[in-house]
């Protein structure tokens, strides 16, 4: 019994240690700068205020409120588009046998390994030439393309667990392939789509590099791009910086909290089967 | 009439119909992938082998990049202090971060497996993975800051005055701070995968082993570890890919500094391309980095299939 208790205590001690950095940023975001000079763990005096959040939200050179709005404008289509297109492709790869489709699939899967830096310069030039540089449309298209390899791999594995008999019954009833896909396959794959959505929302929101090279109008910058700009001129203003960090983190944390089961299944699903 | 019938028959031939359906369903995805991944990646390869006039120059840019102390500065390697060059920094990152992440993830998964409130504890540890890495860099800076940081305060408290300075501001400590911080951020990944892996091991294995007189440590060594081999493989591959691609954390925590002491390949590529406007050298760095990640990806897909 005492050994059991020991395990629980160790587990909770680890959990608390892991939480300390987050406690630190919450504490310093909620307190005025003058109280933080001797560290956020000094609790006297202790004044709570939302000033840091208000200052970060309306910051004169990099207002985070605008950044969060811009991030939403990018992330919502950058999740819907690859989910739909990726689900179609996953279905195509699973159901229709054509020569070399397996090789093609393997190439797409291998694309997951290459870093974004590999496309940066040509992508910048291409976007400039087609007039999509510094536009949300351009960034949405790039995010969609980069999400597709994983979405296709994940959803193909998911769809392969669905029984094909249902589709066969529908095709006997005269439904065409696209109708079978939208009316039968998509509704049946809602759990898989929820997993892909949870992860893609987080990845697109957390992205920094693609936004860094493709968006540069100060009014268009997304939330993650504004974090490095909020550091303060001579001295780091930890109050504002941590408040901005918390606001930017809150969206992926909310997605994780609401869709936790799907999130973890998305992460684990394709590895263990 | 007969010819039209024949044409219709070809149209309805199962293989042709499957081919058309395949194109219709995968077409949009393939167009996006080709336009925004494959084509620019191929152009980057071309850029790394040709000069501004388009003439083929062989490995010239690769040689220049590798001869540059930005990339390879091995003479300063221990006992000297960083900068050791981006390539060496990435390698050190893998050598330190990989074993720590794998071992800690496994220990946490096992310890938390039967603890009270395991779900809450796992969520706390997983928070680092949910956090945007650009903020991960902010948090690392914050933890190791001379005035605001709790780690430096603790170290001063136990008498280690020399480690009480802002770690990210000095070449001796900046790389260590980033690597340790990145362990804290990434361990949630290996822990979650190991937790899922533990749940797939049948209870009977342990019961049978206990009947045979195996203690907890023996059970762990002879049942748990071998059963988790496939998960370990996934974790190792994904972790190495992440370590090679590291960018955001360094960007906010140090911007590769001080004096290049935390420069990594991905950030070096960005500086070459978008600050120095040396597109060919940037392309060579990107191609080199992709070569490494591609080898890991290839190794991973091959071992997963067998």
SSE order and pairing:
The complex is a heterodimer of chains A (273) and B (306).
Chain A: H1 2-29, H2 51-57, H3 64-95, H4 101-110, H5 120-129, H6 136-159, H7 165-172, H8 177-188, H9 190-206, H10 209-214, H11 223-226, H12 238-258, H13 260-269
Helix pairs in contact in A: 1-12, 2-12, 3-6, 3-9, 4-6, 6-9, 7-8, 9-12, 9-13
Chain B: H1 2-12, H2 14-49, H3 60-67, H4 86-113, H5 118-130, H6 133-143, H7 150-157, H8 171-199, H9 203-211, H10 216-227, H11 229-244, H12 248-253, H13 265-274, H14 279-305
Mean pLDDT rating of chain B? 91
Question: What's the CATH first level of the largest domain in chain B?
Answer: Mainly Alpha
Topology of chain B as a string of helices (H) and strands (E): HHHHHHHHHHHHHH
Instruction: Point out poorly predicted stretches of chain B.
Output: none
From the coordinates shown, what is the CATH architecture of the largest domain in chain B?
Orthogonal Bundle
Radius of gyration of chain B: 25 Å
Number of domains of chain A: 2
Q: Name the helicity range of chain A.
A: 55-70%
β-strand percent of chain A reads under 5%
Description:
The complex is a heterodimer of chains A (273) and B (306). Chain A is 69% helix and 0% strand. Chain A contains 13 helices and no strands. Chain A has helices at 2-29, 51-57, 64-95, 101-110, 120-129, 136-159, 165-172, 177-188, 190-206, 209-214, 223-226, 238-258, 260-269. In chain A, helix 3 (64-95) crosses helix 9 (190-206), helix 6 (136-159) packs antiparallel against helix 9 (190-206) and helix 9 (190-206) packs across helix 13 (260-269). The longest helix of chain A is centred in the first third of the chain and has 32 residues, at 64-95. The model of chain A has no long low-confidence stretch (mean pLDDT 91). With 306 residues, chain B is mainly α. Chain B contains 14 helices and no strands. Classes of the chains: A mainly alpha (273), B mainly alpha (306). At the A-B interface, helix 1, helix 3, helix 4, helix 5 and helix 6 of A face helix 2, helix 4, helix 5, helix 6 and helix 8 of B.
């Amino acid at each position: 019994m005492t050994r059991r208790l020991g395990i629980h205590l160790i587990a909770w001690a680890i959990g608390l240690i892991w939480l300390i950095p987050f406690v630190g940023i919450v504490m310093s975001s909620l307190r005025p700068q003058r109280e933080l000079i001797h560290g956020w763990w000094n609790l006297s005096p202790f004044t709570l205020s939302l000033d840091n959040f208000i200052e970060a939200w309306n910051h004169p050179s990099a207002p985070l409120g605008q950044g969060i709005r811009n991030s939403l404008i990018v992330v919502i289509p950058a999740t819907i588009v690859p989910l739909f297109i990726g689900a179609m492709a996953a279905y195509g790869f699973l159901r229709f046998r054509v020569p070399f489709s397996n090789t093609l699939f393997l190439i797409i899967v291998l694309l997951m390994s290459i870093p974004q830096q590999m496309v940066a310069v040509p992508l910048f030039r291409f976007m400039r030439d087609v007039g999509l540089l510094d536009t949300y449309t351009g960034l949405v298209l790039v995010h969609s393309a980069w999400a597709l390899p994983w979405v296709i791999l994940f959803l193909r594995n998911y769809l392969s667990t669905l029984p094909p008999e249902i589709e066969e019954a529908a095709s006997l009833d005269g439904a065409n392939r696209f109708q079978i896909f939208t009316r039968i396959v998509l509704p049946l794959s809602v759990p898989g789509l929820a997993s892909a959505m949870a992860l893609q929302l987080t990845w697109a929101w957390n992205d920094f590099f693609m936004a860094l090279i493709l968006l540069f109008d100060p009014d268009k910058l997304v939330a993650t791009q504004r974090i490095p700009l909020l550091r303060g001129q001579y001295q780091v203003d930890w109050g504002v910086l941590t408040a901005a960090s918390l606001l930017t983190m809150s969206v992926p944390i909310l997605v994780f909290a609401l869709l936790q089961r799907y999130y973890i299944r998305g992460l684990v699903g394709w590895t263990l089967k | 009439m007969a010819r039209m019938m024949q044409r219709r028959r070809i149209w309805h031939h199962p293989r042709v119909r499957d081919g058309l359906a395949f194109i219709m369903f995968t077409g949009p995805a393939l167009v996006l992938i080709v336009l925004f991944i494959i084509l620019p990646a191929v152009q980057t390869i071309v850029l790394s082998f040709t000069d501004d006039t388009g003439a083929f120059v062989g490995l010239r840019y690769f040689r220049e990049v590798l001869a540059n102390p930005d990339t390879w500065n091995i003479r300063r390697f221990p006992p000297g202090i960083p900068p050791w060059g981006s390539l060496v920094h990435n390698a050190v990152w893998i050598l330190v971060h990989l074993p720590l992440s794998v071992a800690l993830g496994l220990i946490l998964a096992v310890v938390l497996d039967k603890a009270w409130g395991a779900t809450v504890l796992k969520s706390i540890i997983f928070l680092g993975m949910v956090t945007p890495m650009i903020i991960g860099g902010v948090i690392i800076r914050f933890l190791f800051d001379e005035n605001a940081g709790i780690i430096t305060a603790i170290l001063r408290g136990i008498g280690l005055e020399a480690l009480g300075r802002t770690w990210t501001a000095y070449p001796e400590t900046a790389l260590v701070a980033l690597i340790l911080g990145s362990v804290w951020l990434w361990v949630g990944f290996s822990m979650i995968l190991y937790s899922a892996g533990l749940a797939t091991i049948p209870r009977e294995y342990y019961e049978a082993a206990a009947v045979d007189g195996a203690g907890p440590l023996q059970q762990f060594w002879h049942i748990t570890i071998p059963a988790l081999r496939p998960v370990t493989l996934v974790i190792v591959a994904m972790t190495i890919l992440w370590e090679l691609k590291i960018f955001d954390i360094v960007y906010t925590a140090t911007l590769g500094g001080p004096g290049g002491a935390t420069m990594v390949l991905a950030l070096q590529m960005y500086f070459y391309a978008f600050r120095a406007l040396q597109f060919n050298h940037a392309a060579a760095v990107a191609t080199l980095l992709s070569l490494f990640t591609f080898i890991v990806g290839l190794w991973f897909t091959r071992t997963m299939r067998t």
